[in-house]
Amino acid sequence: MSIRPGMFLPLANSIQARVTLAVAAVSVLVVAVIGIGLCLLIRHRVETEIFQETRRVATEWIGAMERGQIPPPMPTARVPLVQLVNSRGQVVAAGPMAGDRPLSAVRPTENHIEDMTECPKGKPCVMLTAARVPALQSQELWQGEPHYIYTGTDQPPAVRGHRLELLTSAGGVLLVTLWTWTTWRATGRILQPINTIRQRMSEIAPQDLSVRVPQPSGQDEIAQLARTANETLDRLEAAVTRQREFAAVVSHELKSPLAGLRTGLEEALLFPEIDARQAIVRSLPAADRMQQIIDELLTFARLRNTPCSPEPVDLGALVRAEAAARTAGVPVCTRTQPDVLVLGSRVQLASVVTNLLVNAQRHATRRVEVSAERAGAQAQVVVQDDGDGIDEKDRERVFEPFTRLEAGRRLDPHGSGLGLALCRAIAVAHEGSLCIEDSPRGARFVLRLPLMTG
């Protein structure tokens, strides 16, 4: 099979592969340290137990030696090799398994015991303890000639050669392999929902935004990611739907004045007897309406996409100034508190108050009441008229762009239906709210904005 350049790039970039490799590297290091420590511990433990036994046998034989008498060797099952060797290297006494040749050439000094491992050529290694017979006993038994005792046993298979290291390495390799395989499978299962989410996200097209990613149960990070992705898709679908509806409504609203404008101009071209100046004059209202709609649409889009430049605004003074400017129509009564300060755009907030007052005067019978006061941590502006009011089912619809109720169309035939939508957009841009609340008579518009602190 030919290997193409970049063939392993997806695997190298895989989180599963990187995590598995990292765990494998750490596990190799950990297992190596544990294996080395385990080998040293086993060797030390085995050798310590054997040398303790060989020393015991050697000291007991030395202690059993009396004047003029050498007791026979006292080998045990664990220490079968026992020898007594003189200074010339001759075996004086030995156990049945020790043979007639010295087990070692090591000659320890008096009152000193040496532990060693001898490995004769072609024979198994032997673990020995070499001890010198004390001078007092040597004087009594051999006229002071030094004698040496060797006690030992064959090296156990567990520590013979490199068998222990090989067994430990094999166990370590098996453990690392199992650990790495488990990590690969576990990481794959953990990342499987993410791969599913990625595949489902790749299927989402602009024509169909209703597709949602599968959401696992629980509260872990993957479940929260899926939940957040679905919430984002919900908002995206809602925004695109609003955008499409908005574009459709804009097209519909612009179609009527554009058709009227085109009709007037074509009529002037088709019929020479029609005065061109009068045709232009008759077409100007349609052009004015188109300009009004376009200006309000630009303002609406600017509010959604461009943050305002904040400044301290006294809502009480702003309400009094805007109410004083409304000299035409039904009278406007004001009630304000001093120092109702908010942070925002004075021009935009004045536009909200003006729109609300114009709307209230249009529907009022005798008077309009407007107030600006504090309400906890918020500033509250209330515009109340004494007209027919707005049905509860229509209280949210009136804030949608180009939505005009029957009463509004009758009282203001040339309106665009964007005024209240602009007011709410400005309120939201100032981290506030604009809504219609219950009232005994008429419509009660309530604007709430956070009070300026500090």
Strand order of the largest sheet: 2-1-5-4-3
Helicity level: 40-55%
Low-pLDDT regions: 1-9
> What's the main sheet like?
5 strands, antiparallel
Ends apart, CA distance between termini: 73 Å
Order of helices and strands: HHEEEEHEHHHEHEEHEEHHEE
Structural class: alpha+beta
What radius of gyration results from the CA coordinates?
51 Å
The overall pLDDT average reads: 81
Number of strands: 12
Strand content: 15-25%
Count structural domains. 3
Overall shape: rod-shaped
Describe the protein.
Helix content is 50%, strand content 16%. It is of the alpha+beta class. It folds into 3 domains: 7-202, no CATH class; 221-302, Signal transduction histidine kinase, dimerisation/phosphotransfer (DHp) domain (Helix Hairpins, Orthogonal Bundle), CATH 1.10.287; 308-450, Histidine kinase-like ATPase, C-terminal domain (Heat Shock Protein 90), CATH 3.30.565.10. A hairpin with a 4-residue loop joins strand 1 and strand 2 (91-94).
